[in-house]
Amino acid sequence: MKLPSLRDVATEARLLLIGIPVFLWTMIPIYHMFLFAISPKEDAFSGKLWPDHPTLHNFEIVFKQQHYFLRDFYVQFWNSTLIAAAVGVLTLFIATAAAFSISRLKVPGGRMVLNLALFTYFIPAAFLAVPMYRTMGNYGLLNNHWSLILAMVTIASPYAIWVLKQASDKLPVELDEAAVMDGATTLQIFRLVYLPLMMPSLVAIGTYAVLLAWNEYLYAFLLLSNDRQITLPVALGNFLAADDSPWELLMTTGFIYALPPAAVYYAFRRYMVGGLTAGAVKS
Amino acid sequence: MAITLSGDQALPGPPLSSRLTPAQVWGIILLAPYLLVFLAFVVYPVCYGLWLARAPANYVALANDPIFARAAVNTLIFLVIGINIKMLIALFLSGFFAMQRTWIKWLSVIFILPWAVPSIPTILSVRFMLNPEWGVINHLIFSFTGDDGPNWLNDPTVALSMAIGVHIWKSLPFWTLILITGRLAISHDLFEAAEVDGASWWQKFRYITWPSMQTLYVTCTLLSMIWTLGDFNSVYLLTGGGPADLTHVLATLGIRYLRLDQLSLAMASIVCAMPFVLPLVYFMMKRLSR
Prior knowledge:
Chain A: It is found in: Cell membrane. The complex is a heterodimer. Chain A is mostly helical. Chain A has 2 domains: about 5-55, no CATH class; about 70-280, MetI-like fold (Orthogonal Bundle), CATH 1.10.3720. Chain A is built from 13 helices and no strands. Chain A is globular, with a radius of gyration of 24 Å. The two termini of chain A are about 45 Å apart. Chain B has helices spanning about 15-20, 20-50, 55-65, 65-95, 100-110, 115, 120-130, 135-145, 155-185, 190-195, 200-230, 235-240, 250-260, 265-290. Chain B starts with 15 loop residues before the first helix and ends with a helix. Chains A and B meet through helix 1, helix 4, helix 5, helix 6 and helix 7 of A and helix 2, helix 5, helix 6, helix 7 and helix 8 of B.
């Protein structure tokens, strides 16, 4: 084995000087959350960096719903899951249809719809929330899961359409032409030619929409209020209402809540990074 | 060959319906779901909101509300200082993560976590770390110096800086990722040639990296500004707008008015941000739809 030169060692040391702070900066809030989750109450509040008696007791309390704030844990977890899945499916359906129509069928006015979508993509989410809240009231959808699902689909579709349109444009026109020559109808082209080729982008967009909906706090907290209707993040926010919030349980629930998106992200990382960053900013 | 027909040119002739090919009819049907969503949940709410905010009295009320002025200033600080710090760090780190080392590759996998996990548990975790009595930060300060640490979230300036810190923590990975993509797109030959000529680290950055990434960097900064205007979580979950409503930004202020049942004020405060938002949006749309 060749010994590294002094110069290599110095470069490596300089890189570590960046790498170690980056690691600490990234991990400390997440580690702190985990630390609370495995600490008994006394240890959590003592400011220790590792509990004297690490325990899974907090997880037991959460999973057995043994606290006032956790009465509806499973219902809320289910609400989050259901809403995220519905947003994923609906966004995929709406955005794929729109992208196919604009990019492959060159529908009249398609360009304009794309610009409208792009415009929506740029409306700051918290700004749209104000009129959207009132509108959902007018539609009679407040406190109904559909309000959150439709709001999240509204927010997710513009970006989804944009990314899928970019990806569609890369598919060669000859494929469609050949299919038409063979007598395929438009729907057959969509189902048999277009969808299979778009699979990687569809996975990226589906994942994006699901994560967006699962992680959403503001819209969920405005649009849903009943304890059995709310999603997990809203339930976590409600923990703070108490004067002596059970922080160790809050962090445990938060940790459980953060696991699925992290797992989904890592499972689909390959698709996500390529598919999403390409569409985010066209340089 | 119907499918390659471009429908964009307005041809003179018979009425539209008879000129549409079957493919175009399908095109309209497939586009309809999005158009419906757009009309029902973007156009209608926005028009209705603008209508609610139309009375000049709303703007007089806003001008007389010191919390609004403070929120506007805080938003500017967030945008001008926060975003520039974030983007500069992202630019710097994109160079670091573009290095070919196994351990840096592993670090980049971890580095993405703040972006991938939901805001609420992590921001609340930071909030507890900053708790003056129970938080780990003041515990550490006490054990090293024997003095009590500051009450982090009680001073509006410090609290706002902490909120900016949280915002950077959360969104830095995303922008770093985008800038890495930009960096990797630069031809390697340029760097090799510069290396042969004995260019320094700074010269390589100044004459190769920066010129190739400038456009991307500016686009990212603008896009980040628009999104930051919509960032409710960083401020609300950390400070709740406190102490004494001094750390609100426009995103949290609008929601505050909404919770106080003052919807027209909420809309008016958003309308006041439009002179900043619309030029940004216009510019971004021009860039992206080129």
